[in-house]
Every structure is written in C-alpha cells, then in structure tokens.
Amino acid sequence: MKLSIAISALILAAAAGLVWQIDGRLAAACNYERKLASEAAKLGISIRHDQTVRSTKRQRVNREAEARRLAVEFIKMAKQCEKGVEIDVAAQQRFQEIYQRTSLLDASQLKIRILELLTTKELSQKGRVNHLISALWTYAEKDPRDALALLTKHFAILKDHPHSQDVLSSSLGTWAKDDPAAAVEWMKKNAAEFPDAMKAQSQANVFRAAAEKDPRLAFTLIAVLGLNYSDSHSALHDIVTAAATDEQRNVTLAALREYRVANKNDGTLTRAVDENFGYLGSGFEKEGFAAATRWLASANLTPKELDNICGRLGLNYEGDEPAQWIEWYGHQVLLGKADDQIGNWISVWTRRNYEAAGRWLASTSEGPVRNAAICSYAETIFPQESEVAMQWIKTLPPGEQRQNTLQYIHENYLQNDPEAAAAFKAEHGLK
What is the per-residue pLDDT across 24-33, written as a single tens digit (0 to 9) for each? Predict the structure, then answer.
C-alpha cells in the first residue's frame, strides 16, 4: 500500500522529533531519518529535496550577482577617481556604501571581485594593481591558500607593488594559524620565487602563528625549512616571544629545553637557543612585578636560565618596580653572581630617573645588593654629578668593589684631562 508524500513527510517529521526528544543528538536523528526514508522508498514513497536544492542554488547565484555588481560599481568609481573627476558628497557616500557592502562579502564573493579586477580594461595598470593588492590582502583573511595561489599566478604584474610582500606574509600567517606545517611546506616549495625581504616577514608570521598553536611543532619546522643561523635565530625569537601567558610560557619553556637537548651537538643552534631564552620574559613589563615573579618562582629555572631571562628585562617600569626587581634578584642569586645584572638595571633606571634611583639607594638596607647598586649608580651619574657620585662611593666598604668603581671612573671619564686624571689616581691610590 502506498502512502501519500504529505503523510510520509509527517511520519518522518514525527519520527525525527521523537528521536531528538529521546537522544538529543543530531547524528542519531539523521541516521534514524535515513532508515525511515529507506523504508518509505520500499513502499514507493519518494522523498525529494528539490526545493532546498533550488533555494541553495538561487542563493549562490544571488551572492555571485551581488559580488559582480559591487565590483562593477567599484571599478566605475575608481575610474572616475583616476580621471580626476571631482567627487561630490553623494559620490563619497556611494563609495563608502560600496566599501561597507564589500566588507560583508564571503570568500567566494571576494574572489569574484578579484577576478573582475584582473580582467577589467577600465583602469590603468597602476590603479588596477593597487586595487588588486588591497583585494588580495582582504581575501587572505578568508582563504589564505587561494590568495597565495592568485598572488603566485599573477606575481609578474604584482611584484613591484610595495605591499605585495604584505599580502604574502599575511596569507602565510593566517594559513599557519590553521595548518602551520602546510604553510611551511608551501614556503619551502616556493622559496626561490620570492625575494628575501618577503621571506623574512613571512617566516616571522608563520613561526609566531605556529608557536601560538603548538610550540613543539614550531621548533620542528625550523629544520623543515633548513634555516641558516641568522634565520634560525629569528625563528626562535618569534617562537619564544609568542608565549604571552603563563601556560604558554610553560609549554614553550619545555619545548625550548627539548629542542636544545635534541641539537646539543650543533653549537650554532644551541647558541641561538641561549641567546633567545631570555625573551620568555618579554611580556613581564606589561604584566608587572608580582605576576612575573610568580611565574619565575614556579618555573624551576636553572641559574643560567634565570640569568638569561632577567638579563633581557629593560626595567622600563613605573614607580618602585625597578627596586622590587633589584631586591628580588639579589636574593635569588648567590653573592657576587648578581652584581653585573644589578649594575645593568641600576644603570638603566638611573638614566631614566636618577632621582628615584637615588632615593631608593638612600632608603635600602646595607648589604651586597645595595653595594652593587651604588657602584653602578656612581659610575652612571659621575659625568653630570661628580660630587654626588664620590659621596656614594665613600659609603662603600674599603675593598675590591670600591677600588674597581674608582678605576672605572678614572679610565672612562678623566682621560681627556691628564692633570685631573693624575690627581684622581694619586688621591685614591689607583694603579
């Protein structure tokens, strides 16, 4: 016995609804509906979706037509601009409307716009290239692989545009967010086709995107590209500085250590690793002292790793944070081992705000940290405030630190005045 299509549709709808109530899973509902459709077919019932197909096709055709209309309107107005036709308020509004509508286009519509620009004879070559680069740049965010394909295919006419490299690097960076290995393979395959300047920015975008997705994978991609020391150094920098949270730093730290061990017989790579290790703290100045030291205390760093990270801190902090860092570091490192780093920090801080640095020195308790800071402070301010510098040096206990500071001042600041240099040397018993 045959059932009407209307009845069969109701049966299928009811069955599908029942399944949703029982299971709540779309996959199960679809399987059940297919089973009922099969049984309906045995009874001679035909379940058709022609209306949906026609609707989908019509929507696609409408979107394509809209994209072509926008492209034609844009080219028409761009042509007027090229001819120097005065653009009135109404024309400006139309141009703005076109841009707004264009910003809503999907990838397939944006490609139609690019193809229209490629084939138009209405614009000058320069104008056409300018608009193509802009369109490709936007398209790269939607479909980076196809944007690269179009850029490569038409590179002969696009290569001299100053932003062609930006389209390339943007496309690769966007692609790498989804599939970094594929983006790197594309770079390797097409490396000979593009200038070094393009490859440099592209590598930066790709390795940073790869690191944000998977730091361990990012490190392996260095070998895939067969980078030299300079490029490896840059790639490592991009990977390490991509770690912007404590969780990302932990993963990157572990991957960086693994990478160093795996390449322990390659002195060039291990040197590049050591030189970039300190950039794990590149976000500390933004996060502040408390957050930064909390991670440093939890990361189980070796003394060398801690020194590398702290050595990269420029201490461009506000308020009393430079003092906090100096005091914290002085208590983390063995006596005498922290002097150079404390000296560097005090020198930077003094050049930025010598009065604040001086107030901290006056208020901090005596000890190795204060003595190391005094040495650097006096050496830094001596050219402008020689009397103040000497007063601070006199507060140092007699010994090697005090003599080294006096020797530094003698050698670096007094050589242009032989008479003053001789008097200074005699007064302080310098060799």
Answer: 444 454 454 4
Chain-centre distance of CA 297, in angstroms?
26
As given in the structure block, the two tokens for residue 173 are 């960076």
Report whether 68 contacts 117 (CB < 8 A): no
Hey, is 331 helix, strand or coil? helix
Burial class, 125, CB count within 10 angstroms (exposed 0-12 / middle 13-18 / buried 19+): exposed
Neighbours of 140 (CB within 10 A): 26
Give phi and psi for 384, each to the nearest 5: -100, -30
- Can you tell me the distance from the alpha carbon of 59 to that of 302, in angstroms, rounded to the nearest whole number? 62
Report which DSSP code applies to 397: P
How many angstroms separate the Cα of 314 from the Cα of each of 199, 289, 346, 373? 30, 13, 10, 16
Q: Which two tokens stand for residue 35?
A: 């089973």
Q: In this predicted structure, what is the pLDDT of residue 35?
A: 56
Question: Are the C-beta atoms of 190 and 169 separated by less than 8 Å?
Answer: no
With helix as H, strand as E and coil as C, how does 274-334 read?
Answer: HHHHHHHHCCHHHHCHHHHHHHHHHCCCCHHHHHHHHHCCCCCCCCCHHHHHHHHHHHHCC
Task: Tell me the two tokens of residue 267.
Answer: 């002195």
DSSP string computed for 139-184: HHHH-HHHHHHHHHHTHHHHTTSTTHHHHHHHHHHHHHHH-HHHHH
Contacts of 166 (CB under 8 A, 6+ apart): 137, 201
Tokens linked to 410: 């003698």
Six token digits for residue 340: 């150079």
A 10 A CB-CB count for 13 gives: 11
The model's pLDDT over 80-137, given as tens digits with 9 standing for 90+, comes to 888 776 767 887 788 788 778 888 888 998 999 999 999 999 999 999 999 999 999 9
Per the CB < 8 A criterion, the answer to whether 148 and 186 are in contact is yes
- Report the alpha-carbon distance of residue 250 to residue 92 in Å, rounded: 52
Classify 265 as helix, strand or coil: coil
Region label for 268, one of left (φ > 0), alpha (ψ between -120 and 50) or beta (otherwise) = alpha
Can you read off the two tokens belonging to residue 15? 């069955």
DSSP for residue 84: T
Is a pLDDT exceeding 70 seen at residue 300?
A: yes
User: Are 396 and 376 in contact, with CB atoms under 8 Å apart?
Assistant: no
